[in-house]
C-alpha cells in the first residue's frame, strides 16, 4: 500500500479532487453527487440527533435498518433473509468489502476480481495477505462485457473468493444474467465463495436490469451481497452500508467488523431505514430513487455525446455514475501536447488544458496487465453532477479537443 520508495499515497479520488480544488477545474473525477438525497431522509437524521440517537448503536446495526434491508431484498429480488442473523450494517460498502475479504481470505488464497476493479479491492486483498487475480473485461462498441475465456483462465484451485461488481465501477457495465451465470458456474465448480458489490443496484438505465448474484440458482448459499445508502440515496458521506447472506458468512464478517469500526452512524441508521421503505409509500419522496436513475440516464447522454464531439471514444455505460472514455485519438493528434502518452498523464494536464478533472483508468488496473495495456489511454468521467456543470464541462472539452 506504500509507493516503492516507502511513502504513503492518497487514493486517486482524493488526489484528483485536491487537483480540482487547487486549479478551480470542474471535478468530474471523484464520484459524488452535487445534489443531496431525499429531504424527508435528511430530516429523519436531524430528528434522530435531536431525539438523542447519538450513542453507540447495536453491533449488527439497529433492528429497524436490518429489517428494512431484508424487506428491500425480498420486495425487489425475492431474496428472503433473517434480519437478525443474515444482515449486518457496516460503515459504508467499503467496510463491508474490507471485513468480508479479511474474514474469508488469507495468505495462500486467491481473490479473483474483474479488471478494471474498484480501487479498494486491491488494497483490502493486500491487507488480507491474499493474492489478487483478475479477469479483464472486454471493450465492445456497446460497452464493456465479461470475457468468459479470461474469467475461466483466471480461476485456479486456490481461488477462494470471487469479488463481483455489478453495476460496475469504472465501466458502467451492468452484467447480464447470462454473464453472471458464467461466474456462478465457475465459482461453484471451484467451490469459491462470491462477494458481490451491488452499490449501484438502483442506478441502471434504458432496458438494463440489475441481477443480484444471490438470485441465481444455488448461489444464495455461497454469496455475500454488499450495498449501501451512499449511491442509492445520494448521501455518500453518511457511510451506511450493509452485507447480507448466509448466517455463518455474515457472522464471520461481523467478527472482523467489530474490530474495524465496531459501529457507526447511529442517527443515520433510522434515516436509511426510512429511505429503504420510501418506495412502498406514497409520500413526496416515494419515486426519488427512480427519478434519480432517469435523470442520471439523461445526464449520461449529455456527457457521452459531448465527449464524442470532443474527440473521445466512449464506451456507453448502462449504469453507475461513470463513463470510460478513450482519449487515444486526442493523444495521437498531439492536442494534449507531445509528451502525453497515456490517460494518467492526460488527467494531470486536463485541468490546465480544459479546466476539467477526470480519473485515469490506470487507477483501476494492475500495472502491466492486459487490461492496463488495453486501457492505457482511457480516463473515467462522472456524470453525477448538475446539468449546467456537465454542459460547461462539455463546452470546455469541445473547445479544447
Ligand atoms: N467510489 C467513488 C468513485 O469511484 C469514490 C469514493 C472514494 O473516494 N473512495 O469515484
From TrEMBL:
Listed PANTHER family: FI04487P
Keyword Transferase: yes
Listed InterPro entries: Aminotransferase_I/II_large, Kynurenine-oxoglutarate_AT, PyrdxlP-dep_Trfase, PyrdxlP-dep_Trfase_major, PyrdxlP-dep_Trfase_small
Keywords: Aminotransferase, Pyridoxal phosphate, Transferase
GO molecular function, one term: kynurenine-oxoglutarate transaminase activity
Occurrences of domain Aminotransferase class I/classII large (ranges): 26-397
Species assigned in the record: Cellulomonas cellasea DSM 20118
Top-level taxon in the UniProt lineage: Bacteria
Cofactor(s) listed in the protein's UniProt record: pyridoxal 5'-phosphate
Pfam family, one: Aminotran_1_2
Record-level GO cellular component terms: cytoplasm
Matching Gene3D superfamilies: Aspartate Aminotransferase, domain 1 (3.90.1150.10), Type I PLP-dependent aspartate aminotransferase-like (Major domain) (3.40.640.10)
Family classification: Belongs to the class-I pyridoxal-phosphate-dependent aminotransferase family.
Protein name: Aminotransferase
